[in-house]
Amino acid sequence: AIADGLLVRAEAGGIDQNQVLKLLAVFAPRGKDPWPCCNCRQFLSEFGTAFWVVGLEKRESKEKVVGLCFAELVPHLFSKEDVL
Fold first, then answer.
1. Which of 11, 59, 60, 78 could form a disulfide with 82 if both were Cys (CB 3.0 to 4.6 A apart)?
2. Beta-carbon count within 10 A of 81 CB
3. How far is CA 6 from the centre of its chain?
4. What is the pLDDT along the chain (84 residues), one digit of tens a residue?
5. How far is Cα 23 from Cα 71, in angstroms, rounded to an integer?
6. Domain map of the chain by residue range?
7. 3 state DSSP class of 52
8. Strand partners, 69
């Protein structure tokens, strides 16, 4: 929820991803999937794909910090040109 407000204000102000996003941390306390949801992924893509997404993955009783470049997480996004 905090990130949503930050991203909306950044986009409205004309700030691109290179000025805002270098790393995105995801906190998912109840689930084992530490990645952004589909809607969030598409919205985040409007800020580019050159940033890291990290999260805490829970498998059975083990926890592990995992990370991917956003471009690896979502390799075939719609671009702005695709929708305009």
1. 78
2. 6
3. 13
4. 345 566 666 556 666 555 567 788 887 776 667 788 877 887 788 777 888 889 887 777 788 888 989 888 887 776 667 766
5. 13
6. 2-74
7. strand
8. 52
